[in-house]
Amino acid sequence: MSVEPAAAPHDLAVEVSTDAAGTVTLAVTGEIDVSTSTFLRGRLEEVLDAEPAAVVVDMAGVPFLDSSGLSTLIYAFSRAERQHATLVVARPQPIVDRLLHVTGLFEMLCAPAKAQ
Fold first, then answer.
1. Tens digit of pLDDT for each residue in 42-60?
2. What single DSSP character describes residue 15?
3. Structure pTM?
4. Both ends of the chain: CA-CA distance in Å?
5. What does the pLDDT look like over 66-87, one tens digit per residue?
6. InterPro entries in the record, alphabetically (predicted)?
7. Domain assignments of the chain as residue spans, ordered by start
8. CA–CA distance, 103 with 92 (Å, rounded to integer)
9. Which of 31, 38, 58, 104 is most open to solvent, judged by the fewest CB atoms within 10 Å of its CB?
């Protein structure tokens, strides 16, 4: 499954793919901040509207994440949980990883990815 994005901010890209098992991966590239988090939320909503069993947000290409980005990830995690789906954040870069640990969100958002 590949969902065509709405107009993306110039500094954020989200590529959506689905593997043979039905896991949907959003590969995010660029900074997630107040100017781009709404776009990311929209992409996550599009994916979650299809009710996949599992969603992975690949953050390997994200060098910066602010509180609006954290809020977007928490929203998506909560929505996925309500739909009885899993959502995990994978491969956060060091600064993003540190932010997730400092805020106490690493265990909620990333720990399931470590177990896979």
1. 999 999 999 999 999 999 9
2. E
3. 0.88
4. 22
5. 999 999 999 999 999 999 999 9
6. Anti-sigma_ant, STAS_dom, STAS_dom_sf
7. 12-111
8. 14
9. 104
